[in-house]
Structures are given as C-alpha cells and as structure tokens.
Amino acid sequence: MLDFSLHGEKGKKEDKIQGLTPKERKVRFSENHTGQAVEERIKEYDMKKTDKAIEMVKYAIKCGVRFDYLLIDSWFTNAAFVKRITSRHIKCNPVGMIKLGKTRYQTPYGELTAKEIIRKLHKLGLCKHNATLKCTYCTIDVKYAVTTVRLFFCKRGRNGQWNGLLTTDMKLSFLKAYKVYSMRWATECAYCDCKTLLNLGRCQSVHFSAQIASFTLTLMQYNILCTVKRFESYETIGALFADATDESLELSVTDKIWELILDTILEIAALVSADASELLRALVDDNPKFHKLYRMYNLNVA
C-alpha cells in the first residue's frame, strides 16, 4: 500500500447534506485545522475521486514507483479519466472494467454502446473461444475520449453475463489483458484483510487527524505483515489465492535446491557415464540428510 485518501459525499438530498439535517450539522463536532499538517488531508475530503486518483499516480511516479499498467475499476473508467491519463506525461496504460451502459464508442460500424458492439461482433462471427480461460470473447478497437482504445468483452457459459475491459495498449491481447487485470484482485483482498483482521475504519475518534493516523497505522501494519509473509514463506502474495489462480506459486526454497541437486546429478551422471536414477537412489539411501531433503520435497509437492 502506497497511499490512501478519505472522501465525503454530500448525497442526493439537498435538505440532508451527508445525511444530516441542518440542526444535526450545526451541533456536530468541528475544529479549526488551519496551519496543521492534517489541513492538506482535509482538502482531499471534498476532491473528486478521479482527480485524487490522478494525483496518486503522479505521487507514486515521483516516489520512484514504475509500472506499465494502471488497473482501475468501472468507477474510474470514464472519458475524463482516460483523457487525463493519456494527455499527461504518465507513461502507463490504463486497464479497466467498463459498464455496459449507455456510453457510446466510435466503431467502424458507427457509434454503438457496449451491448450493441457485442451483438454486432457476434452477428459477424467475430466472437472466439479461449480454451485457457474457458470463455467466449471478442476484441475491437474504437475511438473513445479523443483517443484510440481497445475493448475486450468476455463471458463464461452460454447464459453468462458479458464483462468489458478497456485499455489504451493497442498491442495487448485478450489473454494478457485478463491476466494483468486479475492482479487487481489483490487490492480487493487486501482491503478485506485490513477490515476483518486489522480493524480498518473502526476508529471511533471524532478528530479527523486521528482517523488519518488510524488508517496510516493499519496500512503500515499490512505492509509489514505482507513483507514478513513474503520472506518467510518465500512465495508471492498471490499464493494466498493459489486455489483461485490455479497454482500461481513461485518455487519454494526446497524446490529450488532440489532442482539444483537434480541438475548436478545429471551432469555427474553424464561425466561418469552412469545412470542418473541409480545415482540419485544411492545418494538418497546412503545419506540421511539427503533423504530428509528428498522427503521435504515430496511433502511440498503433495
């Protein structure tokens, strides 16, 4: 976790701003933060989320964080956000979910909505089946937000719901786009872990600075725990979701050592013209420590 921001919304009812009546707003706790460090955070509170997201991207780049893709959900995948990302010197490509709503895209077949594009491509027989992901998909390049973008649509099963992805990377394939965007699942899981295990958002203080401090400490805790997990388990954070990502683990330490040993045995067997399997069996049977390592490897594989 690199950064966060807290935002408030006025709500749809003009007579109950933020869900409060004028009387309730008048008696609620407030304090003057002029000249305090938290004043900058208070200014963020009323900012548009899309504007703050741009600032966060720029701040990450300023801190030396480099990335190829900016993964966003459908809330941020709009014309204004895409235009701002592509018009600035931010060398990255957004990959985001899109809503299958009334937004129109300029296609070779005219201005169409996402659903109309899907129907058109299906009618033209341009929908394909991906055996790896076991889904039906179609791809089209369109004009959107004064730039050319690539749209991907996919669904699972005959009666499955269509989902859409948008990217400004015109070289990106459907499979690569799917795999790249699936990394955003880590953010959702991190948020869930922070709420359920680290009490994120449960600070009861009425002071805004205390709320900022609470969020900061929680996210620092999460970063520390993730670092410990990374080095102790010697596996990617994605290993927490190995069942969902179908064996996305890196090789463990034992696997790597075992791989080196096997390579060495194969080299020795080739030099002395011996049978590699017989040489390995002799080493395992005659050496207790080697036998223990062999058992550890088998347990890990199991």
UniProtKB/TrEMBL annotation:
InterPro entries: RNaseH-like_sf. It comes from the Bacteria. Residues 1-21 are annotated as: Disordered. This is Transposase IS701-like DDE domain-containing protein. It comes from Parabacteroides distasonis.
